[in-house]
Amino acid sequence: MSAGGPGGEAVSAETANQVDAKGIGVGLIGIYIAGISGIPYLAFLAGIGAIFATKMGADAVRRVCSYGIGTGVPSIGMLALGMGIISAMFGLALGKMYNIVFIGPIVGLVLALVIGFVVGTLANKIIKLNIPVMERCLMEIAGAGVLVLTGLSVMIAGSMDFVVISEKVITTGYIAPVFILGALGILHPFNASLGPDETQDRTLVHAYSCGAIAMVIGGVCSIAVIDPIAGIISTVIGLVIWYVTFMGFVKLVKRDAGAGWVGTGLLPPGAM
To answer: For 104, 110, 180, 195, which has the most beta carbons within 10 A of its beta carbon?
Structure first.
């Protein structure tokens, strides 16, 4: 099942434009402050930017998958990070090549949007999915993917220099958890909430909590490659965000359950 029922768009209290503005705006601001300031203790801001980008991607997933793409939810999250990693690395490498490092995230984002539009057009025109929001949503998902990957990579490395990220994120293998957790943050919230009672606020607060988990793991990774205190700051802030948002998710789950609930505890001996 899906949020809006088969063939219908999911109901949203927060518009796509609002979610996108926050995701792109906070995502880029966090990346730039952390990447350009040269202050390791501000690296956590890139992680916060990645959390908002995760929310942007999760909202795009819920809108496109509400048309009935049930088994495609996990696939579309991995697609987001596939497009994202290509675009992110290309943008950062181009910035390094021309010695204009600050253009890297913007170039990566623009490339991701173009790739997302092309893939969305192919899905609608060639594969004939005929989903009205497909092109826009795949652009948003690709854009979210590049911001999540860039944000977490900058947080771990403490820089947005392509050489530094290559040495401290890619060569070390930390790109693997970044990729996997980034994809899960985008695909899992709707996958965990889909059904006739899915609501945008519950799904998106879960996106925050999933993004915070990625930030925590990224913070742990950064302890080994940049200032340990900076890594601990990112980890602790990520844990705080996770706790607050996950408790908010649990509260909304209880609200939407529509019935009384009770913890049953462990089964008595011999019940099995």
So the answer is: 104
